Amino acid sequence: MKKTIKKNLKIHIRTGDRVKILAGKHRNEEGTVLQVFPKVYRAIVQDKNIVARHVKPSAQNPKGAIQRHPSPIHISNLMLIDPVSGEPTRVGRKHNEADKLQRYAKKTGNFIKNV
Fold first, then answer.
1. What secondary structure, in 3-state letters, does 54-108 show?
2. Mean pLDDT rounded to a whole number for the chain
3. pTM for the complete prediction?
4. What distance in Å separates the CA atoms of residue 51 and residue 25, rounded to the nearest whole number?
């Protein structure tokens, strides 16, 4: 059975963002977000949290194989890196000059450009 988050939580990271991993075997490492799964509150970070999957033999692959894939990391274990200062920061939302809601870095106050 698949677990889902019942509340409509805001995701503070997006695809293409640089993030710092806060917990797990890749703690204190940085990477780029490849994909975000909002329903399960997880994200895939490039070249981090790699797991091995065993593939059964088939007509195309008669010997079978062991394939390596990145596994999703919980969003709470990721922190956005401010593109201007290069340091990890918390993320807020406020209206910009065009009166559109946009993400900003709480440490520096700079708006974060959408990729």
1. EECCCCCCCCCEEEEEECCEEHHHEEEECCCCCCECCEEEEECCCCCEEEEECCC
2. 90
3. 0.81
4. 12
